[in-house]
Design goal:
- By secondary structure, the chain is an alpha+beta fold.
- About 45% of the residues lie in helices and about 25% in strands.
- The protein has helices at about 10-20, 55-70, 70-75, 100-110, 115-135, and strands at about 1-5, 25-30, 45-50, 85-95, 135-145, 150.
- The strands form 2 sheets. A 3-stranded antiparallel sheet has the order 1-3-2, covered by helices on one side.
- It is built from 5 helices and 6 strands.
Length: about 150
């Protein structure tokens, strides 16, 4: 058996599996959660496995599927009206969540009354929370041009 594709999207994996089934290629999906975190940031990846003799044809079918569905993958559809006329905006926040600054002193106090190992652990965590606050983050918002609904992708 040979892996032809690895994806964090189970829906995509099942649709490629169905396309392979229509071409009479025996395939199966295997959950790959052996790594701590995959490159995409998800915890689980799904691998599509096929017999060695069918690997080339299966790779062609999977790449054709991905090429056909690339346009629908980039922009979501509106959850309110179902329109695909959606525009994206990226909002850059200069500071992280205020909860990082609230939890940092609490972690320092807990660490102060803990054994030495936990003191250093909680102190390091508090410092990382403070640094995370000052780094900031980005959020992606989508705006439906038909019904003017604002939503997140996931």
């Amino acid at each position: 058996m040979e892996a032809i594709l690895s994806t964090p999207n189970i829906v995509e994996a099942e649709q490629i599996l169905a396309a392979l089934g229509q071409a009479d290629i025996e395939a199966r999906i295997i959950e790959d959660n052996g790594t701590f975190i995959s490159a995409s940031g998800n915890i689980v990846n799904y691998r599509i496995m096929v017999n060695d003799g069918d690997a080339d044809a299966a790779k062609r079918i999977a790449s054709d599927y991905r090429a056909r569905n690339k346009a629908t993958e980039t922009m979501p559809w509106c959850p309110e009206c179902g329109s695909e006329d959606v525009s994206e905006s990226v909002v850059r926040h200069k500071h992280g969540s205020i909860w990082f600054l609230v939890l940092a002193p609490i972690m320092l106090v807990v660490g102060f009354f803990s054994p030495p190992f936990f003191f250093w652990l909680f102190t390091a965590g508090a410092v990382l929370f403070i640094i995370q606050y000052f780094i900031g983050y980005k959020t992606h918002r989508y705006h439906c041009n038909k019904c003017h609904h604002i939503f997140k992708r996931y």
